[in-house]
Amino acid sequence: MTGSERARSAGRLAVVGIGPGAADLVTPQAAAALAEAEALYGYGPYLDRVPTRAGQVRVPSDNREERARADAALAEAASGRSVALVSGGDPGVFAMAAAVCEAIEAGPEAFRRVDLLVVPGVTAMLAVAARIGAPLGHDFCAINLSDNLKPWSLVEARLDAAATAGFVIALYNPVSKARPWQLGAALERLRGHLGADVPVVFGRAVSRPDERIEIMRLADADAARADMATLVLVGTAETRVVDRPGLPPLVYTPRFAREAAR
Fold first, then answer.
1. Residue 113 host element (H or E)
2. What three-state secondary structure class fits 145?
3. Handedness of CA 223, 232, 41, 44 (dihedral sign)
4. DSSP codes of every residue in 176-216
5. CA-to-CA distance for 2 and 33, rounded, in angstroms?
6. What is the pTM of this model?
7. What are residue 117's DSSP bridge partners?
8. Over the stretch 225-261, which tens digit does the pLDDT of each residue have?
């Protein structure tokens, strides 16, 4: 048996990030892993973004079934098949790679024998940042506003810590039908730490046909402008907005800290 045959007999699971939406933001490694798989698992709308291939099985599931989806994909791979688990953005950023690792740790021994490959993708905060300049040019952090898997008090503590430490903050999963108030509460909390003129960027569906980018002051930031397709970037006192005649403004955070500039 050749090395490739032994790998095939053990089964393989590729957890693949397909980026923010546009086909040209899917990496060559991701495209190859998707094309090579015998079966694709994933949230239905994400699977719809993957080109179809004859003979390839597709297993869609609901958005909040991450652990069950990971278990099912691992079981398929453990049977000896080549499987790809599709994730939006980057699979390691609030996405499927962590669910797969959890399933491997808690699951049967067969899961630990699966050849696992995590294929990175362009995550939302990078896609939004690239559209407007360089808001992540200095230190930054990402906070998931969903309190489905953690208490809201912990989200509040992390918002306080990030704002007082001077991080640009990327807010993932800002609102949903089941969580309509969290973004408004987060913005109000940040107003208690940051100046009214700190830039805030609402980046919705970046790289897709319905893309919308809005730049505003923190004092004017309205949570009603966001949905689950939106990534919100909150700047710092150092973050600049540069107006350009006839062109969209640039938003960037200088590479140096204020103390270092003196």
1. none
2. coil
3. positive
4. -SS--SHHHHHHHHHHTTS-TT-EEEEEESTTSTT-EEEEE
5. 20
6. 0.92
7. 14
8. 999 999 999 999 999 999 999 999 999 999 998 764 4
* pLDDT digit string, tens, across residues 26-49: 999 999 999 999 999 999 999 999
Contact 164, 195 (CB under 8 A): no
Identity of the amino acid at 15: V
CB-CB contact of 111 with 146 (8 Å): no
In sequence order, which ranges of the chain are alpha helices (DSSP H)?
Answer: 3-10, 28-36, 44-47, 66-78, 96-106, 109-112, 124-132, 152-165, 182-191, 258-261
Answer whether 38's CB lies under 8 Å from 83's CB: yes
Strands ordered across the beta sheet of 12-17: 57-61, 39-43, 82-87, 12-17, 115-119
Alpha-carbon separation of residue 90 from 137, 172, 183 (angstroms):
20, 13, 22
Residue owning tokens 């200095």? 138
Structure token pair of residue 93: 């950023």
Q: Which two tokens stand for residue 95?
A: 């996405």
